[in-house]
Amino acid sequence: MMERQFVAGLDARLHHKDANIVLQCACESKTPVPAAALAAQAFNALMACPGTRWDSAAIRQMIEDMNGRTG
Fold first, then answer.
1. What is the model's pLDDT at position 27?
2. Among positive and negative, which fits the CA dihedral 8, 67, 19, 52?
3. What dihedral angle (degrees, nearest 10) is formed by the CA atoms of 61, 67, 70, 71?
4. What is the end-to-end Cα distance of the chain in Å, rounded?
5. Residue pair 22/69 in contact by the 8 Å Cβ criterion
6. Helix, strand, or coil (residue 28)
7. Beta partners for 7?
8. How does pLDDT run across 21-45, given as a tens digit for each residue?
9. Residues 6 or more apart from 68 whose CB is under 8 A from it?
């Protein structure tokens, strides 16, 4: 992440899918998972960006872009 290498080591789409599974299970068991919900929202936003085949480290780039920052 620090070296700004966002090429997929593990495709962020898999993390996105898994985060949604966690939220579904939490909902079914009525278990609050605020940190998982926050992570899921970050992955939702990342999926809307070009480059969704990036590693999940690209969340850093997405947050910088949302705040008008680079590098």
1. 97
2. negative
3. -60
4. 11
5. no
6. helix
7. 54
8. 999 999 999 999 999 999 999 888 8
9. none
